[in-house]
Amino acid sequence: MTDTAAPYAAPAPKLRPAAVTAATWLLVAVAAAYLIDAVMIMAGSGGYPDRVREAMEGSGVDPRAWQIVGNFTGALPVVVAGFSILSAAVVLILALTISRGSTVGRILTWIATGFALLCNVCGLGSAGTPAFSSIAYVNASSRDRSGVHVFAQRLPDGYPDWYRYGSLALFTLGALALITATVLLAMPAANAYFRRTPRFAPSPYGAPAGYPAPGHPAGPYPAAQYPAAPYPAAQYPAAPLPGTPVPAAAPPAPRTPEQVAEELATLERRRERGELTDEQYAAERARLNG
To answer: Are 37 and 130 in contact (CB under 8 A)?
Structure first.
């Protein structure tokens, strides 16, 4: 029976390096920070509309403007909390993909990290906190005899100080964690982990007989895989022994008159086509006539 075992063994599972493991847990910590921030936003959302209304009255804006922005102000914390929860879910999915060695997941992690850091910088410059809630704001304006009155307030400004300090700490640590995870995913050990491996790895016992060795072009399939037809061996005349006289070649068989006539006709046509000169034609004709 022919041994049909494959010359290549299944690849061994890749070992996750410590850099990728650390980056995974850092992303999990960032997702937890987003969830905690969402909880703090919902915890302070009860008195948020009243605080916004008081601040708007102190700005000199017409009180009737509250009828327009009041409902929007009540829904704003819910929208921001939902965005934080969605961000946490995205980060958790990215952490799962990079823990499994997904190259696409690593690229998406870098893109998402850049976007998150950009939002943190914008929030820090506009509301003094890098939280996502700093992007949300309420504004209103009115005109009277004294001039134009404008009101604009970022969401953290309408919350108590405990939220501002808590979100500042959470998102500062989260930004540092994102930067560290990005650096870890770019290390040489991580590059080797995310590099695509072949479907089959070379067997440690080498290739069986009849199969090409790894790294060499494949040749014809082993003959043992297919039943060969019993072709007869080629018949060759036996070589004469040393000292044995070699028989002389037999003289050629005489030509028949029909063969001579056909050869003369061919010779005539060659002369008509100009392939033979008169001297060549005469010599060939004399040879044929014997």
So the answer is: no
Domain range summary for the chain, segments of one domain joined by +: 14-194, 257-289
Structure tokens at 224: 């043992």
**What is the distance between the alpha carbons of residues 107 and 149, in angstroms, rounded to a whole number?**
47
Q: Is 85 exposed, middle or buried (0-12, 13-18, 19+ CB in 10 A)?
A: middle
pLDDT at residue 153 greater than cutoff 70:
yes
Q: Whose CA is closest to 65, among 141, 125, 155, 118?
A: 141
Q: Angle, nearest 10°, between helix axes 18-43 and 161-185?
A: 160
| pTM of the predicted structure, to 2 decimals | 0.60
Residue 196 burial by Cβ neighbours in a 10 Å radius (0-12, 13-18, 19+): exposed
Spatial distance between the Cα atoms of 87 and 149, rounded to a whole number of angstroms: 36
Using DSSP's 3-state secondary structure scheme, residue 2 falls into coil
